[in-house]
């Protein structure tokens, strides 16, 4: 019985070391998760650049960026972001045909430890001539 317990403890120690040796992998951290433009006029185009950093220990690759409607256009780096390096996600929101409070959610799909991150553009679209 003592040998079984000792063998189990040694096995767990080796498994723990193997997991620690793997590192954290890529980790994406945004400086901010939302940008509120306040009141804008219908038809205005507003844009914002979300800056992020790979705080992990492996290259970060953004595989896709999905938006909630065709009124939002994202542009992101297609090359890998090295550990410690920063990148930019530029997003343009076109308020044509929109009225009232808008919250455009942008989903970022990557190989990071958290594979889906979200950022958003917020605005209140007022009719023209207001």
Automatic annotation (TrEMBL):
Question: Could you tell me which Pfam families the record lists for this protein?
Answer: DUF1573 (PF07610)
PANTHER family the UniProt entry points to: LIPOPROTEIN-RELATED (PTHR37833), SIGNAL PEPTIDE PROTEIN (PTHR37833:SF1)
Q: Which residues form a coiled coil?
A: none
Checking InterPro entries in the record gives: DUF1573, Ig-like_fold
Keyword Signal assigned: yes
Q: What keywords would UniProt list here?
A: Signal
Organism listed in the record: Mariniradius saccharolyticus AK6
Establish whether keyword Signal is in the entry.
yes
Q: What is this protein called?
A: DUF1573 domain-containing protein
Q: Where is the signal peptide?
A: 1-20
